[in-house]
Amino acid sequence: MRITFKKVIKTSILLIAVCVFSVLFCWDKTTPAESLQTLQDGHGADGPLVESLRGDLEGSEEEIRRNQRSAKSFSPDADLINAIGNPQIQDDKINFKDFPKKSKKKSDDEATELDDIFISIKTTSSFHESRMQLLLDTWISKCRKQTYIFTDASDFSLIEKMPDGHVINTNCPESHYRKSLCCKMSKELDFFIDSNKRWFCHVDDDNYLNTDQLLQLLQKYNHTENWYLGKPSLSHPLEIQSRSREGQKVAFWFATGGAGFCISKALGIAMVPEAGGGKLIKVGDSIRLPDDCTIGYIINHILKVDLTRVDLFHSHLESQFRIQDPKKHITLSYNEQNVASVPGFSLKDDPTRFKSVHCKLYPSEEMCAGL
């Protein structure tokens, strides 16, 4: 049989076409699972890609549980966790490109920012419309996201003025006695520990807080070390009778709560065995002292951590009229005629001088337009 050049060309083209068709046919039969395994092998994955993603999400869920407070909290992973745990939602309907990226954990070496501070205000329902409204109109407006209000009753008018979960009804007694004060302080401390923030700073509802000056102070200290910052109201340690050793006395320093004080994250964690989960109330009962004294007793006497005196904190027990430049101070207070000597609004319109102080610090605020 005679083979011509044309027949060779035709045969070659036919064979090539058959080979191409076979390759395409085999590729189409490759299962999604085989394709997924090939992707994993190419990236050095040890296990299935979907399980790896679910493991990350389970870690996020655990993190959410760990950081969750009794107040409402939000996590962008929550809906995705629920979706993957729901058998009615198929894997092929989940777009993994839409998964939120985890935010990097802030290094302890990075500078402290306002968002690293848990600002806690202790109040009572009878002061919601008077004292709390004044704070909302002034300094809270500059740090609403970082501020938490601890009170003793539900007040929807107050709740709607703050971010979700930032007004906490402690269900503590509505009084200014030891049990009520220690009850609220106990809740404040527990919420701070659960927040995982660097600093716990407590103020009362008759304090003006200069957050700029507060931040400058805290940036000088390491939150991973034990720091108790505040101002004592006494010139000497407080002496009480020992509850465990009859006839002996115990002496310790405490920062007065009426001026405000701050506790580092490390110290807050160290306090948990003695004060966490409501134990602070029991300690207060045992020494028969209010909340700020109980805090000092636990820190200075039990944990042997010194109080670092900061004279920029001020309570109503001090002469406020000596304060003329609020920019240099962290907290101010008031008590009847005992107010800061700051020009601005009339005494009738601003008897506490807090509005005038606020306009001194933030003159561009709308409320300051008439000054």
TrEMBL record:
Record-annotated Fringe-like glycosyltransferase domain positions: 111-353
Cell compartments where the protein resides: Endomembrane system; Membrane
First-listed, main subcellular location of the protein, grouped into a coarse class: membrane
Classification via InterPro entries: Fringe-like_glycosylTrfase (IPR003378)
Topology class, membrane: Single-pass membrane protein; Single-pass type II membrane protein
Cellular compartments per GO CC: endomembrane system; membrane
Molecular function, one GO term: glycosyltransferase activity
Leader peptide range in chain numbering: none
Keywords, sorted A to Z: Glycosyltransferase, Membrane, Signal-anchor, Transferase, Transmembrane, Transmembrane helix
Family: Belongs to the glycosyltransferase 31 family.
Protein name, as recorded: Fringe-like glycosyltransferase domain-containing protein
Species the sequence originates in: Magallana gigas (Pacific oyster)
